[in-house]
Amino acid sequence: MPDLLLELFCEEIPARMQATAADNLRKLVTDALVERGLVYEGAKAFVTPRRLALAVHGLPAGQPDTHEERKGPRVGAPEAAIQGFLKAAGLASLDEAIVESDPKKGEFYVARIHKHGRPTPEVIADIVPEIVRTFPWPKSMRWGEASAKPGSLRWVRPLQSVLCTFGPETEEPEVVRFEIDGLKSGDVTRGHRFLSEGEIKVRRLDDWMAKLEAAHVVVDRERRKDIILNDAKDLALAQGLELVEDAGLLEEIAGLVEWPVVLLGEFEERFLDIPDEVIRATIRANQKCFVLKDPSSGRLANRFVLVSNLVASDGGTAIVAGNGRVIRARLSDAKFFWDTDRKTTLESRLGKFESITFHEKLGSQAERIARIVRLARELAPRVGADPDLAGKAARLAKADLLTEVVGEFPEVQGLMGKYYARLEGLPEEIAAASEEHYRPQGPSDRVPTAPVSVAVALADKIDTLVGFWSIDEKPTGSKDPYALRRAALGVVRIVLENGLRLRLGALVDVDLLSFFADRLKVHLREQGARHDLVDAVFALEGQDDLLIVVRRVEALGRFLATDDGKNLLAGYKRAANILRIEEKKDGVSYAGLVDADLLQEPEERALADAIASAVPRINVALEREDFEGAMSVIATLRAPVDAFFEKVTVNAPDAVLRANRLRLLADIRTATRSIADFDRIEG
Asked: Is 501 helix (H, G, I), strand (E, B) or coil?
């Protein structure tokens, strides 16, 4: 079956946009093909700093023919209706329609419409220009003389050529002909900006990839990444060193080069006095280079790895020297900042926070720090920390924000606080809390476990949430400018992963507590738990201990996975539905004491006895936080509930008997609600 090759060649595609652009091109083109009946076998997008391309494999030669019957008006209908039918069906006259009969509606016209599918190249020629014109670049531009005309093409950078071919592997492919703002499609591309000259004529995917490789372009992004990573490791190994891998930097560099050439440089050993993280941040931010470490010491070595987009005639000597000069200058600045910061204590910096606004409605940074200190001291006994130590750690945790190093490299905030605290001889708990109170910063980041760090991390996040909730700055939809979802999820993870017993209701209001419930649902759903069970447990009064909520949810999930659990839930749903209908109709609640003298049937007496026996045992188990035991007790209700609904008529003719049986159903509801709100459980 034929294949499609499409390449959009332009001046430049910024690295940060490349991955998304490749995904968008693949989806837009393949969706458009499928919508038009052209189903394909596979598709792969390619992107380099200068080209965005797509190969679609296994396309049919043309669209399938379609057959449609369109019912028209009755025979003898008004002329306007007849003409409307002919126009809609594409018929020249009624002679092209057929007449069908219906016993009830009589005779009416029917159009049998047969449409021949168009050749695939024609379809491609229609969809590609529109996709190019409306491509969702985050930023785009106009250029040249045409830019002054309304509706002229916008693209991320000036579009220079469009390659589009279609055909089977065994034949010469045809050029799919179309035009975009005066730019005509063809079968030529260009190689590397500096290492190749002239146009390159290509046929299909394998030909395109091979000829571009010969022209110093590696079109596959993943292969460029592999080349960079493997060559960098080899260079490091040759020096007896290890590459400090950086997935984000690797992604970025792969988007900057079409022909990666990996080179090794060095800087003076005197700069190794600077903390490793600062060296790495300096070299990464300014020169997009990797750093190496000495496996024997675990510290960084005075080497760096850079990736060039050129095969230089001098073997890269000038390129390495140029990068080295910039890196040495930046490291000199970093060393100056590091040396300057060590002349001042963290405590002496705190006064500056009084003049720095945290938020116009929440006061200064100094006021916020004071709140965090109070909360950290309050939380300390609950997490096993010393209140005085937790208070001191909270007071100094933000101090490194005012240092020169963090001012230049914000990504090392917290970490530098740890270094400066150690240099001052402060307790290790305070040093660790400076770094760890920001954690976890994402789902893959570890949570703090040291008690003082836990107290400060919880205080920091809870203060943030309470503060922004108080001024009604809550997350909306996809917008969360203050990262409140991340803060709440951080609290959830710290509590659960440290096994903490913390009553959030004493710290936050009901509205914010429901937000924690939502974050807990997200967290548990990622662990494979059901969100409806979290809702069912949180609906109970006083459920603000996240650890206990999770244990209840886990026990409830295991119970509902059993036959007893499934059948009891079904019985509960039946009882609850009857009660809902009858209480609404009668305008009363049937919650109350069941009259034992009115229990006539053996099954209703057995159910009443089972509930009376189960409820106190459930309560005892819950008081002991023995949730498995509580589930075992409630499972004993399954058989009497089943028997009750099989043998007993709830809505008896006798009103007094009916009311008593409805109260018995209400007792089922009450018994289950000591464990969870079964109304919120799906199924």
From this structure: coil
Q: Which residue has the tokens 């006994």?
A: 381
- Are 404 and 390 contained in the same domain? yes
Q: What angle do CA 354, 422, 418 make, to 5 degrees?
A: 60
> Tokens standing for 425?
């001889």
Pair 9, 127 in one domain? yes
Span 190-212, pLDDT tens digits: 999 999 999 999 999 999 999 99
Q: What is the CATH number of the domain that holds 178?
A: 3.30.70
Q: Can you tell me the distance from the alpha carbon of 58 to that of 343, in angstroms, rounded to the nearest whole number?
A: 68
Considering the domain architecture, whether residues 500 and 577 belong to the same structural domain is answered as: no
Query: Does the structure show a pLDDT above 90 at 58?
Result: yes
Query: 380 — alpha (psi -120 to 50), left (phi > 0) or beta?
Result: alpha
Q: Identify the residue whose tokens are 């909360």.
A: 375
Comparing CA positions, the residue from 540, 543, 541, 519 lying closest to residue 531 is: 519
**DSSP 8-state class, residue 148:** G
pTM score? 0.77
CB atoms within 10 A of CB 597: 7
Chain segment 347-384, per-residue pLDDT in tens = 999 999 999 999 999 999 999 999 999 999 999 999 99
Find the mean pLDDT for residues 285-292. 94
Cis peptide before 448 (omega within 30 of 0): no
Q: Which residue is it, tokens 């916008």?
A: 154
Integer Cα distance of 190 and 205 in angstroms? 15
DSSP 8-state code for residue 356 = S
Domain-terminating residue out of 214, 234, 269: 214
Residues 6+ apart with CB under 8 A from 83: none
Inter-helix orientation angle 563-586/546-560, to 10°: 100
- Answer yes or no: do 452 and 484 share one domain: yes
pLDDT for res 110: 86
Q: Is the pLDDT of residue 228 over 80?
A: yes
Range of weakest confidence among 46-50, 223-227, 507-511 = 507-511
3-state DSSP assignment of residue 99: strand
Per-residue pLDDT band for 114 (boundaries 50, 70, 90) equals confident
- 119: helix, coil or strand? strand
Check whether residue 355 and residue 434 sit in a common domain.
yes
Which of 268, 288, 412 lies closest to 338, judged by CA? 412
- Report CA-CA distances (Å) from 30 to 10, 163, 165, 505: 22, 17, 16, 51
Number of domains within the chain: 5
On the question of pLDDT at 526 being above 90, the answer is no
Portion of the chain with pLDDT greater than 90, in percent:
79
- Written as one string, the DSSP assignment of 414-460 is THHHHHHHHHTT--HHHHHHHHHTT---STTSPPP-SHHHHHHHHHH
∠ Cα 533 536 539 (to 5°):
145
In 267-391 the beta strands, taken as DSSP E runs, fall at: 290-293, 300-308, 357-359, 363-364
52-to-11, 98, 221, 567 alpha-carbon distances in Å = 11, 51, 11, 57
- For residue 150, the model assigns a pLDDT of 83
Please give the pLDDT value at position 88. 83
| Whether pLDDT at 424 is above 90 | yes
Residue 114, helix vs strand vs coil: strand
